[in-house]
Write a structure and sequence with these properties.
Strand content: under 5%
Radius of gyration: 17 Å
Helix content: over 70%
Order of helices and strands: HHHH
């Protein structure tokens, strides 16, 4: 019975996620940051190159990565 309850909870959580998803629209600079950080995280890229491409510091890239991992695209909306 515990396994069934566990699976039920997971399915309920997934349903909630789908229910509350919304389309996120970004401005041009936010979209560029999102695309560069997404590519960086997905392909384990070079943070220094990403910082240079975006014209920001390496520390800011680290912060954007954290935002991306926590909130996805919606983390880039200003």
């Amino acid at each position: 019975m515990l396994v069934f309850d566990y699976v039920s909870n997971i399915m309920y959580d997934m349903l909630l996620e789908v229910t509350y998803m919304r389309k996120v629209e970004l401005r041009m600079n936010e979209q560029l940051k999102y695309e560069v950080i997404k590519e960086l995280v997905d392909h384990n890229g070079n943070k220094n190159r990403a910082a240079k491409k975006l014209g920001i510091s390496r520390r800011q890239v680290d912060r954007l990565i954290i935002k991306y991992k926590e909130n996805g695209k919606s983390g880039f909306v200003h």
